Amino acid sequence: MKNKKANSSTINLIGGISFFILIAFIMQMAILCYDYIRERTQNLSLIAILILIEIIILAAFCTFFDWIRRKIMVDKPTKKILQATEKIAEGDFSTRLEITHEYGKYNQYDLIMDNVNKMAIELQKNEVLKTDFISNVSHEIKTPLAVIQNYATLLQDETLDSETRKNYSKTLIAASKRITDLITNILKLNKLENQEIQEKHEVFNLTEALSNNVVEFETIIENKNLELNCDFDEVTIFSSKSLLEIVWNNLISNAIKFTPNGGKIDISLKRKDKNVEIKVADTGCGMTSETGAKIFEKFYQGDTSHSTQGNGLGLALVKKVIDILGGEIAVQSEINKGSTFTILLKNVVYERKI
Ligand SMILES: Nc1ncnc2c1ncn2[C@@H]1O[C@H](COP(=O)(O)OP(=O)(O)OP(=O)(O)O)[C@@H](O)[C@H]1O
Ligand SMILES: [Mg+2]
Question: Which domains does the chain have, with CATH numbers?
């Protein structure tokens, strides 16, 4: 970009010098004409008239020259830009402007055209994302809604015994919870993307916070008969407690969800100088490298049959939070062996100054 700017200021300089030379040329010609006429006549009014005519001719010549220059250098690209921006404003984001100069030899108009092209590309990308997003949300809502409709119809049968009724209403509650979770996650992600959620950094004991999060999953871990090992260093950090909660909740719930009964989950928290490394490892179903490359995308689920609960938004949220906090996230996984998610929080360790 710097290179491009330097080029456009060179063009400004050339324009300025040309204008200066033109004015100097007119004045020089006027002086020469004056001398030429003075040598031939002493009639002052004739001299004045001739000089006036000479100035008018020169001015007309310069105006014509400037008109041609403007036509080629200003009006033509301006018209091109205007037509393109009108098309973009009407919603045709496939519009692109053809830049005649080579990259590096751009003038101001080329720079504007380049920016208009970039804007159109971004708008086109956003349009695709928006359409994908709408179709994903509709798809995710459709399934639980169908369940709600079916079971609500079944519940209308007055001959049902109380046990069956109870089971049906449990299914109804689970399906409506899926929709609520989906909407909560969409709103959270939207707020994070629009930077509406304040980072609100505070000094807090990460060991304690992480332990409290793990405790919340105790019942599900017990129900699935999972072995849980926690190895936590004692660390106090300066970061966003609430945002990090989103990370722990999603990583731990994924580890539980994707690990079959009787499996093992290891969670570790290690201090590494001023950084902190958290690992959540499981002996679950694991994933292929193709799946691993896509898991941070919105609505992506490795199991397209949707047999496991969720909407594929958890890791998109995790990634967004880690990006906001300037950390790193990595995953190592092997099919049917398990997965390990590693989070690195940089420069967060808080040490009380004595
Ligand atoms: N621990 C894990 N083991 C195996 N696969 C995993 C693990 N964690 C995530 N994945 C894969 O990554 C996908 C995306 O995960 P993500 O947390 O974004 O969505 P989800 O858990 O399916 O749904 P949600 O988080 O919205 O409830 C999962 O569907 C799964 O295929
Ligand atoms: Mg998840």
Answer: 2-122 (no CATH), 202-345 (3.30.565.10)
